[in-house]
Write a structure and sequence with these properties.
The chain is α+β, with helices and mostly antiparallel strands. Helix content is about 30%, strand content about 10%. The chain is built from ten helices and ten strands. It is globular and about 50 Å long.
Length: about 350
């Protein structure tokens, strides 16, 4: 199982001047045993600080897989019913045609809540109460359960608030107490200030290649700023603001769809433990690989496949040997890397 999609050899990460890579860590775990643990390059754009064994990276959308694992753990514990209305756990959610939306729909990107219509302030990204209240008041962009659309950032607040309502813990605390702490993983949602010096800085995204999936998405955002595709990535406006991911407020906040920080070793160990039945029973792991959404994505405007909280392999984006291999990768390419397999 792969925590984030990777292509090419490790040489592409070692400060490659052609591809613009600065530094990275890569790790592979097989049958619960680490077999690859490498790091190279630099942890800062100025190339002054080498990437070290314990360098942390913002793993962006791999955060969704981590958050999904927490939800599946609650299901296995009998505390969360995937087929129950979200409003059973989060009563304020039952407005605007969302009364019948289930936890299953949230995890499958089928709730129709990929974005908030109301213009949000830049600082709202860091205000959990503001974001969850905005989503509770939002009406679906399309009929819930029909088709699917990538909940690029809202996935974290939606599933995260469900976790918080069930456990009375924030997702970051639940991760520490239930998974990262017991397994000894250097894995965080909401990074303590003491760890900030270990985080790799990120450079601005390079311009997308003409005709690429990224370029098509950028075109959609520019041409239709009020569309769900645009709002999903630009409301609040800090979500993709240049340099925002390098700020203390981004690192310290809990944004469970996008700001988990980890070493490649710990990301690989997380999925290794999952595969070995140390986090979930094997029948629960099988549920993680079962397709729930497939076909044209109404947000990304490309074909995507999802299970309950995870991306599944598709042509050009494989997580493993079989069609139901699962994990998570960024929908948008980044310049600094941290990858686990």
């Amino acid at each position: 199982m792969r925590a984030e999609f990777a292509r090419g050899g490790f040489d592409e990460f070692a400060g490659d001047p052609v591809r613009g890579e600065i530094g990275a860590g890569v790790a592979v775990t097989v049958a619960g045993r680490p077999v690859v643990d490498l790091w190279a390059g630099y942890a800062d754009p100025g190339r002054k600080h080498p990437w070290l064994r314990d360098t942390l990276a913002n793993v962006f959308s791999s955060s969704k897989g981590i958050t999904a694992i927490l939800a599946h753990r609650l299901v296995e514990q009998g505390r969360l019913d995937l087929d129950a209305p979200v409003a059973r756990y989060w009563p304020e959610f039952a407005t605007g045609g969302k009364e019948d939306i289930t936890a299953h729909m949230l995890l499958s990107h089928r709730a129709g809540l990929a974005a908030v219509r109301e213009p949000l302030a830049p600082e709202d990204t860091y205000d959990w109460k503001r974001m969850t209240e905005a989503l509770a008041a939002e009406r679906p962009w399309r009929a819930p359960g029909e088709n699917h659309g990538y909940h690029a950032f809202t996935f974290g607040w939606l599933v995260g608030e469900l976790i918080r309502r069930v456990t009375d813990c924030t997702p970051g605390r639940f991760l520490r107490e239930e998974v990262a702490g017991p397994l000894g993983l250097d894995l965080h949602i909401g990074l303590d200030t003491a760890h900030h010096s270990r985080v790799a800085g990120l450079t601005p995204l390079p311009s997308p290649e003409p005709g690429s999936e990224e370029m098509q998405l950028v075109g959609r955002i520019i041409s239709a700023p009020e569309s769900v595709s645009a709002k999903a990535f630009t409301n609040p406006p800090t979500l993709l603001a240049p340099g925002e991911v390098n700020t203390a407020r981004w690192r310290e906040a809990e944004i469970p769809a996008a700001n988990a920080h980890a070493t490649a070793r710990s990301l690989a160990a997380l999925y290794g433990a999952l595969a070995a039945g140390k986090i979930l029973a094997q029948d629960s792991v099988s549920r993680c690989s079962r397709e729930t959404s497939s076909g044209p994505d109404e947000v990304l405007r490309i074909p995507t496949r999802f299970s309950l909280g995870f991306m599944l392999s598709r042509p050009g984006a494989s997580f493993g040997r079989g069609p139901n291999s699962f994990g998570h990768r960024d929908a948008v390419r980044r310049s600094a890397r941290c990858r686990g397999s």
